[in-house]
TrEMBL record:
SUPFAM superfamilies: Retroviral matrix proteins, Retrovirus capsid protein, N-terminal core domain. Residues 173-183 have a biased composition (Basic and acidic residues). This is Core shell protein Gag P30 domain-containing protein. Keywords: Host cell membrane, Host membrane, Membrane. Residues 418-435 have a biased composition (Polar residues). GO terms for biological process: virion assembly. Pfam families: Gag_MA (PF01140), Gag_p30 (PF02093). Residues 212-406 form the Core shell protein Gag P30 domain. Residues 155-202, 408-438 are annotated as: Disordered. It is found in: Host cell membrane. The keyword Membrane applies. It comes from the Eukaryota. Residues 2-103 form the Gamma-retroviral matrix protein domain.
Amino acid sequence: MGQTQSTPLSFLLTNFGDVKSRGHDLSLDIRKRKLITFCRSEWPTFGVGWPTEGTFCLPIVLKIKSRIFLPGKEGHPDQIPYILVWQDLVENPPPWMAPFLSSGTYKILTARPTKPPKPQTSTTPILSDSQDLLLIEPPPYQHPPLREAEALPALLPNENNSPGPAGRTRGRTQRDPGFRHPDSTTALPLREIGPPDETGNPRLQYWPFSTSDLYNWKTQNARFSDNPKDLIGLLDSVMFTHQPTWDDCQQLLWILFTTEERERIQLEARKLVPGDDGQPTANPDLINAAFPLTRPPQDDWNYNTGEGRGRLLIYRQTLMAGLRAATRKPTNLAKVYSIVQGKTESPSSYLERLMEAFRQYTPMDPEAPENQAAVVMSFVNQAAPDIKKKLQKLEDLEGKQIQDLLLPRSMGRKRWDGSSQTSPSPIHRNQTRGRSCTCPAISHAHRGQNWYHSTYSPAS
């Protein structure tokens, strides 16, 4: 046996190369000196039972994490990478951690000792990672009291159910003597467990986000400032499937957005807090109550009460409204006017670039009927010179839909392929005399690059 006793911290420092690689896998950069400082000097002062030698007890790790993620001056954003890597190592331990976890060299602290201890009937070692969330809340079994070992198999999710981009998330660890844990599992949102409470409301079980899910979302989606549609679509799904709590929402904001983006989203959301009449209010008390920037009293935001669920629903809806409002950049029509059709560019490609410019640099929705006239005029005025002249000869130009300009043959003109027969929209294929006819936006290249310009002629 060795002369010195290994501790969780010394174990990580001995294998720091692998620890650092795990951080890189999560897009995080950690340094050995800071890890030592946080573990020995910072985290023990949080008052949640963190020992100076560190621990692999997940409930304590999660308590440290919740303190680090507190907003404002109470939080510790510089420590976020370190606790996330530590959590990921506990949830998904590498092979070299197995001897330490099975050696029983550290104590497992019970977070909520509300039940008398049960006699041990198995010689299988007690693993910290197998007791992760079970120490915080009871497992979501659907039947009256079952033995823990019998209830666990019912917790395994149905992998065939994958609702939206947030599917297969909320990963959780399994009780597995081989120390192997799935990278991700089916979403486990706030879900009903057991019988309703005395008021008839269902009891809900909470499962925190896993570190790997958060960073998969971060790496698999474009930055919010570059392409907000990706993250809006993701969070729409997350809000529906996960029913995140206030703490969850802060974690999403911290991980998926930059500081500037996060502040802009919160600012816009607070402008949209609904008042008693359902319209945005300017009452600061109502705004702070419905969309707090600091952690609200948990009794008022308890997801197991009707009032708490109502507050969380309004908060999530307001947050998504702020998210959409934050995508609107200051109006810059010069950017829109700079979109001109290339000499050999297809009409659909040109239109797509133009509409994207409207979305990015103006507050208008280019697909809305009330904005069609503005889009049509920009489409005409910024078209290639020869096409612009022909389009300007059309009657009632401002009253036309943008599709009319993409379908000159629908107004009595020649077909795109040169014949006089009319055909459907250019964005569809039409079978004619046993062969496929494709719109010029898709196939004009193989007919000659100037084909669109030579055939686009309005009726006389």
